[in-house]
Amino acid sequence: MTTPAAPQDDSGVLLSVRNLSLRFGGVLAVNDVSFDVRSGEVFTLIGPNGAGKTTLFNLISRIYRPSTGSIAYAGPDGAMLQLTRQQPHMVAGLGIARTFQNIELFEHASVLHNLLIGRHRCRETGLWADLLFTRRVRAAEMRAREKVEQVIDFLDLQHCRDQLVAGLPYGVRKVVELARALCTEPRLLLLDEPSSGLNVEETDDMAFWIQDIQQALGITVLMVEHDMALVSRVSDRVLAMNHGQVLAMGSPREVQSHPGVIEAYLGRADTASDTSGPLRRPPASPGARTSA
Ligand SMILES: Nc1ncnc2c1ncn2[C@@H]1O[C@H](COP(=O)(O)OP(=O)(O)OP(=O)(O)O)[C@@H](O)[C@H]1O
C-alpha cells in the first residue's frame, strides 16, 4: 500500500499558523490567530503585557497544545507537516530551536560543555555505539566539536569558552544561550525577548547578532520582543497582538503607526501624536502574569 505524499511547500513559507486558539479556564489567551513566517525572514510578535505573545510562542515550540487550530511547518525535505502532531521532544529534531526569556543554561558547567550538551539533539548514533565508542561515534563527536567551535567563533565567545556559566555577566549568558540554540543547526530560531535584562550596549550587540544570524547563516527567526527600537531594526515583518488576537501585521513602520496598536499600548490613539518613536513597554496590568 502506498501512502499519499505530504503536500510540498513551494511558497517560501516555513511556518503556517491557522486559526490557533488556546484557552486557560476562562481566559482565551490566544484567540483565532493566523499568520505565515517566510523562509529567511525575521518575524516579530509584539503587544502589551498579557497580549498572548508568550502563549503563542509556547504553542509553536509545542510546550502547549492548542485548543483549536493548526501549525504547519516545512520539514527538512520540504513537506509541510503538522507540528501539533509532533511530540514536544521531536521539535528540536525538525530544526526548531529556542531561547528562553529567563536564561536556561547549566550554571555549573562551562560554556563549551553547555554548547556540547546543546548539540546533543543532533546525535546520530545509538546507545550501544556510544558505549563501544565506535568509529562512527568518534566521527560524530568530531563533527559536534567542529560545529561548537564554529559557533564560538561566530558569536565571539572565545574569551569565555572554558568559564563556568555561573560566573558570567548576564549579557554574556544571553549570548551563550543563543550559541546553544545555534549549535543545533536550526532552520527556525525562536527567540523569547532576546533583549530582556540587557543594557543599551548589549541590546545593540544582540541586534547585530540577530541580523548576522539571518544574513550570514540564513536562519529564519521568530521572536517575541518589547524593545521597539530593536524590533524596528531587525524585523522584516511584525505581528501585533492584544487580548489574544491579531491587531495588525506588516512592516515595523506600518505596525507601529497602526491606530489599533497605538491604542493598545497607550490607551487612546488620539493621545499618541508621535508615532515615529518606539512604543514603550507599558506597566503590567494588575493580575497579568509575567511570561514563562
Ligand atoms: N499557564 C497559564 N494559566 C492561566 N492563564 C495564563 C497562563 N499563561 C498565560 N495566561 C494568561 O493568558 C494571557 C496571555 O498571557 P501571555 O503570557 O501569553 O501574554 P504576553 O503577551 O506574553 O505577556 P508579557 O508581555 O507580559 O509576557 C494572560 O491573561 C495571562 O494571564
List keywords for this structure.
292 residues; alpha/beta; Rossmann fold; six-stranded mixed sheet; four-stranded antiparallel sheet; 9 helices; globular; disordered N terminus; binds adenosine-5'-triphosphate
Q: Percent of residues in helical segments? A: 25-40%
The CATH superfamily is known as P-loop containing nucleotide triphosphate hydrolases
Task: Tell me which oligomeric state these chains represent.
Answer: single chain
Strand arrangement in the largest pleated sheet: 6-7-8-3-9-10
Shape: globular
CATH class bucket: Alpha Beta
Q: What's the helix count?
A: 9
| Uncertain residue segments | 1-8, 270-278, 282-292
CATH topology: Rossmann fold
Distance between the termini: 45 Å
Radius of gyration: 20 Å
Order of helices and strands: EEEHEEEHHHHEHEHEEHH
Report what the structure shows.
- The protein is an alpha/beta fold and 292 residues long.
- 32% of the residues lie in helices and 22% in strands.
- It has helices at residues 53-60, 111-118, 127-132, 135-154, 170-183, 200-217, 228-234, 252-256, 259-266; strands at 13-24, 27-38, 42-46, 68-74, 80-82, 96-98, 188-192, 220-224, 237-242, 245-250.
- The strands form two sheets. Strands 6-7-8-3-9-10 form a six-stranded mixed sheet, sandwiched between helices. Strands 2-1-4-5 form a four-stranded antiparallel sheet, with helices on one face.
- Helix 2 packs parallel to helix 5 and helix 4 (135-154) packs across helix 5.
- It binds adenosine-5'-triphosphate.
- It comes from Verminephrobacter eiseniae (strain EF01-2).
- Keywords: ATP-binding, Cell membrane, Membrane, Nucleotide-binding, Transport.
- GO terms for molecular function: ATP binding; ATP hydrolysis activity.
